[in-house]
Write a structure and sequence with these properties.
Layout (H helix, E strand, L loop, with lengths): L6 E4 H31 L7 H25 L1 E4 L14 E6 L2 E8 L10 E3 L3 H6 L7 E6 L2 E10 L1
Parallel strand pairs: 1-2, 4-5
Antiparallel strand pairs: 3-4, 3-7, 6-7
Helix pairs in contact: 1-2
C-alpha cells in the first residue's frame, strides 16, 4: 500500500469521484461546448464576454476531468471497517492522548481529508507520524507551535 502514485479512497469517495467525472464528460463539457458555439455565432470574439467565460469554464472542466481520471486510474480502495487493531494504517481509527485529553482520528487518503470530521490525510505530518505505529507508542510531531507528543491509546 505504499505506491507513491496511489490515491487512497474509500469505495464511497471513489464512487462520488467517478460520478463527477461522468457528469463532466457527458453533461457539463458538452453544455459548455454548445455555449462556446453559440457565442461564436455572435461575431467579434475579442469583445465577447460570454465566449471568454465559456472558454475559461471549458478549460477548468477539462482540467478537472483529467485530474479525476488520474485519481481514479491510480485509486487504491481502502476499507475503514475490519482494519488491524495492532498497527496504524490507512483506514485506521486511532485514539490518541495529547495534553491529558483523548482525541480520535481516522487516517484517510488526501482526497478524503476533513479536519472538521477528524479525518486526517496519510500525507499530513500527523498522519505520517501515526502510520506503522502500535498501541502504547508515543509519537512526536512537529507542529507550528512546537513539538507535540501523542500517545496511541487504541487502534480501531
Amino acid at each position: 500500500m505504499n505506491n507513491v502514485n496511489s490515491h487512497y479512497l474509500t469505495q464511497k469517495k471513489f464512487d462520488t469521484l467517478k460520478a463527477e467525472a461522468k457528469e463532466l464528460k457527458n453533461q457539463t463539457i458538452p453544455a459548455i461546448a454548445k455555449r462556446i458555439d453559440s457565442a461564436k455565432q455572435m461575431g467579434d470574439l475579442s469583445e465577447n464576454a460570454e465566449y471568454h467565460a465559456a472558454r475559461e469554464e471549458m478549460a477548468w472542466a477539462q482540467s478537472r476531468l483529467k485530474e479525476l481520471g488520474r485519481i481514479l486510474d491510480n485509486a487504491e480502495i481502502i476499507s475503514i471497517e475490519n482494519k488491524s487493531k495492532d498497527i496504524v494504517d490507512i483506514g485506521s481509527k486511532v485514539v490518541v492522548e495529547i495534553n491529558n485529553k483523548e482525541r480520535e482520528y481516522t487516517i484517510v487518503g488526501a482526497q478524503e481529508a476533513d479536519p472538521a470530521e477528524r479525518k486526517i490525510s496519510n500525507e499530513s505530518p500527523l498522519g505520517r507520524a501515526f502510520l506503522g505505529r502500535t498501541r502504547g507508542e508515543s509519537v512526536q510531531v512537529e507542529v507550528p507551535s512546537g513539538v507535540q507528543v501523542y500517545k496511541i491509546v487504541s487502534i480501531n
